Amino acid sequence: MAKKPIGPVRRAFSPWDDPAAKPFIEFRNVTKRFGDFTAVDNLSLKIYEREFFALLGGSGCGKTTMMRMLAGFETPTEGQILLDGQDLAGVPPYKRPTNMMFQSYALFPHMNVEANIAFGLKQDGMPKAQIAERVAEMLRLTKLVPFAKRKPHQLSGGQRQRVALARSLAKRPKVLLLDEPLGALDRKLREETQFELMTLQEELKMTFLIVTHDQEEAMTVADRIAVMDAGKIIQMAPPAEIYETPNSKFVADFIGDVNLIEAKVAEKSPQGTILQAASGEFCIDTIQETPAAVGDTVWYAMRPEKIRIAHGDTPEANAVNKVGAEVWDIAYLGDISIFHSRVGEKETLRATVANITRLVERPIAWDDKVVLSWERDAGVILTA
Amino acid sequence: MKSGPSWFNVTSLVLGFSFLYLPILLLVVFSFNESRLVTVWGGFSTKWYVELMKNQQLIDAAIITLKVAFLSASIATILGTMAALVLVRSGRFIGRSLFSGMIFAPLVMPEVILGLSLLLLFVAMDQARGFWTIILAHTTFTMCYVAVVVQSRLVGFDKSIEEAAEDLGCPPVRTFFLITLPIILPGVIAGWMLAFTLSLDDLVIASFTTGPGATTLPMKIYSQVRLGVTPEINAVCTILVALVTMGVIAASIATKRQQVQRERDERAAFGAAG
Predict the structure, then answer these.
(1) Please, are residues A219 and A255 in contact by the beta-carbon 8 Å criterion?
(2) In this complex, which of A72, A110, A155 lies closest to B269 when CB atoms are compared?
(3) Number of inter-chain CB pairs under 8 A, A vs B
(4) What 3-state DSSP class applies to A45?
(5) Binary contact (A153, B165; C-beta < 8 A)
């Protein structure tokens, strides 16, 4: 297959920083209760046109309910949902300009691939010739041309997923809703499809809203992520911001791997804060200021790749933040190795090191005495 | 270890099958009996089948029975499917368990009681009894069977398929006819066939609710048998048995074929995806 040019570089896109930008989808103080259970709790959210937005959270956090309220399958108990300035209250699902790709794909088992894709267009009363044209285009776009006449049960999981995608895109909805779209695919196919989704979104210039519990998926595809827990948004920011400056222990722990160090505020100055680890083994000098008072207990969240690990005689031993440790366990993952090092009796710190050489014998081995060191801006102080 | 069937298994099988099929086999054999005496073998003959074709009363009864079965099965299928949809789909509503219990009551209710209560109802309504009252009665008692069959098909139905249709711009009623009905159709057809068969051979309820001019085949056979079993009756019954057997075999072959085809398709798809 001929490689097509991959198009222009993705440009910086951040309408959410522009106070004059008009939100495309807006949740205003939306609450949804099922009996005694509050699935979505007084939540407000603005999503902008052409944004790829991810709702991320564990099961039961309310993310799917949010999407189903936008599609019209659930009615908010309180609050308003606006799409392009129009209040969606009372608009039935079949009149909303959104289309959804279902987690189970929900293909029509008695129709072939073509008929599945054409279904939505027929409902709109589109002329036959135009339907055929659009279906052919969608088949091409999702690489399903050879399977046009097959029924869903004659397709593999990946092919079914693409039919579901083609069907939901065929009507060119204002918003495409993706409910855990890649959950059933294996890892390789999932990664491929994630990039395909991003490319499609760029090409079709649509707004995508994805619901997922897979943080890697959200980080890969989304312009912005909202991390949800118990019906509330805990943090909403672009992926890098969520990763590098989580606003709470929950987010730090949910996204990626993290060392959460319990500490007390020892000293505050305009140049930063000095923390004393609760284990008593070391101090942390940071550039960050904190609202917490001297003596308060806080948490220091530091990603494992921010920690350097070296033998005691290397130059790193002179860093501002350092602590002696003993290598307790090593996990070799091929691309990186994770070192679990014990600091004193109570604390274990994880440090990841990229395996940049092909040496099978690693310079650092089990039970080695090492020095862990990090910069003053390596982590963030969390109070919640 | 011995691989063949044990003596116990063989005996059980023979006993079971003779218990089920010996009476029917006797009936079939004696329908080809030359002799007028039912229990004495007088040589092979098909004359009772010829005789049957001349018996206008029996043919009329058969036509009425088929009409009743067709109409009552069709009405029962519509009502039963609707009942199943409500039971599976509407979630919880006040009186749901009462309703679901009551729809299945006719499954276990003695036919005599059902027939008698229907008769009382028709009398109270001052309704002339006949063809239409049998249809109403048969609809009543076959509807619950349809509901059970359709319900089992609906339980495994992924609701998001309907949501997908609505999401793509299809209003609920059209969604039912374009999406839901085609998918549950095998269950609906099975329900219809069950209702048709039940109506075809019902004697008790039909006897209670019939009137002048509406004699069904089972009623006719029963009344003739009281005057003595004739080889002619054996012939009618043999034809009925043959029809039912062919229907059952055709249905199971169709199901089996569909299943084999589906498995083959699925293997092909996953093989190709590799």
Answers:
(1) yes
(2) A155
(3) 81
(4) strand
(5) no
Contacts of B89-97 spanning 24+ positions with Cβ under 8 A: B89/B154, B89/B159
Contact (Cβ atoms closer than 8 angstroms) between residue A156 and residue B273:
yes
What chain A holds in terms of domains, given with CATH numbers, is 15-250 (3.40.50.300), 257-382 (2.40.50.140)
Closest by CA position to A230, among listed A70, A54, A39: A39
Ordered DSSP codes for A14-43? -GGG-TTPPPSEEEEEEEEEETTEEEEEEE
Distance of CA B221 to the CA centre of its chain: 19
Q: Please give the Cα distance from B94 to A334 (Å, whole number).
A: 60
Supply the pTM of this predicted model.
0.79
Per the domain annotation, does B31 fall within a domain?
A: no
Query: Is residue B168, in this structure, part of any structural domain at all?
Result: yes
- Does B32 map to a domain? no
Into how many domains does chain B fold? Answer: 1
Q: How many CA atoms lie within 13 A of A159 on its CB side?
A: 25
The model's pLDDT over B98-154, given as tens digits with 9 standing for 90+, comes to: 887 887 787 888 889 989 999 999 999 888 888 899 999 999 989 988 998 888 888
Nearest by Cα to A181 from A190, A169, A173: A190
Partner-chain contact B164 A153, CB within 8 Å: no
Specify the CATH number for the domain of residue B208: 1.10.3720.10
Residue of chain A whose alpha carbon sits nearest to that of B161: A106
Segment holding B232, helix H or strand E: helix B231-273
Q: Which chain A residue has its CA at the smallest distance from B181's CA?
A: A110
List A residues 115-174 in contact with B (Cβ-Cβ < 8 A): 119-120, 123-124, 150-151, 153-159, 167-168, 171
d(CA B217, CA B88): 37
Structural domain range at position B83: 46-252
In a domain, B184, yes or no: yes
ipTM: 0.81
8 Å CB contact of B183 and A92? no
Query: Which residue in B168, B171, B262 is closest to A171 by CB distance?
Result: B168
B170: left (phi over 0), alpha (psi -120 to 50) or beta: beta
Dihedral sign for Cα atoms in the order B213, B217, B222, B228: positive
Chain A residues with CB-CB distance to B160 below 8 A: 102-104, 106
A120 contacts B168? CB cut-off 8 A: yes
Is there a contact between A87 and A42 (Cβ–Cβ < 8 Å)?
no
**pLDDT tens-place values along chain A, 384 residues long:** 445 555 556 667 888 888 888 899 999 999 999 989 999 999 999 999 999 999 999 888 999 999 999 999 999 999 999 999 899 988 999 999 999 999 889 999 999 999 999 999 999 999 999 999 999 999 998 889 999 999 998 898 889 999 999 999 999 998 999 998 887 778 888 888 888 888 888 888 889 999 999 888 899 899 999 999 999 999 999 999 999 999 999 999 998 889 999 999 998 888 889 999 888 888 899 998 888 888 899 999 999 999 988 887 776 666 788 888 889 999 988 889 999 999 888 889 999 988 888 876 778 888 888 889 898 888 999 987
